[in-house]
Amino acid sequence: MKSFLLNTYSKVLMGVIGIILLVCLLELWHLKSWSREDMRQCAAIVECRSFNALAVDGKPVLYFTTLDKDSTLQDVTHCLDTIRHHHAYTTGCWVNRYYFIPSCKGRLVTVNCDTVATHLRLSPQQLKTLVERERKLLEKRKKDLDAEVSEFKYYLSVHGVQDEGYDFTARYAMKVYGERNDVDSAWVVLKQIDTTRRLSILHQSEYTVIYRDPNGKTRRVACKRVALARDKRSCLLQTLDKSTPDGVSAIRLLPWGSYVAKHIFAVGYGGLRNPDLASENAAPEIIPGRYSVRKGHDIPLLMLSDGSPVFSQQGNLLGITDGRKIIGRPTIILLFLKEGLK
Fold first, then answer.
1. For the whole model, what pTM was predicted?
2. Under 8 Å CB-to-CB from 285, ≥6 apart: which residues?
3. How confident is the model at residue 29, as a pLDDT?
């Protein structure tokens, strides 16, 4: 009996010691001060590639990138293989779901850059008008391209490769021929659309996270959107295999509200906001700044794309940028709750 009690006491004591050690380890982990390198490694580039489809009775018949201000289809094609994607870039931040334990599993928080879909909510009558207008526009474009093709064919028939500029003209002519074929095919499809059928626009988007591995090489990994904020500004992404890549640092979220201090640090990719300057090989940089409730942060927007993580001077994540604003921790935490409701 004495031996049994002694063994039971020993097991309980070992269990208590184990729990104490676990709590101490967790406490050390979440009290860890994030270094400047950790701040850089928590950031990644998020690429969103999207396209749209005009559908008849739910079946896609034409593909395009977006609508312009006059509700005209851009980059129209009937072939899925020749789709031109609409590209948008933001910055993402690797985050842990739970405060006390490492729980990233490939999750990033960023600002929703898939904004094309919001402009495509057209009524049935508007879609019918769009189809009829697009028929006329493509018919006119077809006639213009036919004229250009005739000119190129004549020029190339009376000149040879020995003539200066012939190769350049021939290459350009091939581009015109290709465009003419695309327009012809799209025009034929539009002519066959019965506008009395159910017309709709389908939107498709693909997300890719671009980060640096432990050797500093640029890597790409596919991901999907798992939660979207109520105001549709911020969203939560997750890698398809639900794993966090090597070489990145997932930030913990303090479980209470965040007061954005006057002095801040943001991690950004210079030029990512400008399509002409954006580069997937850009390196994240830590940029000091100031913040006020009335004016927002004062960091030049060219240095920060939306979604850039913002830290306090103590190294705690305060939120992510959205223009001059900062989306705080409470909104980010709600994204995890919305993910759990799916």
1. 0.75
2. 40, 267, 268, 269, 270, 303
3. 47
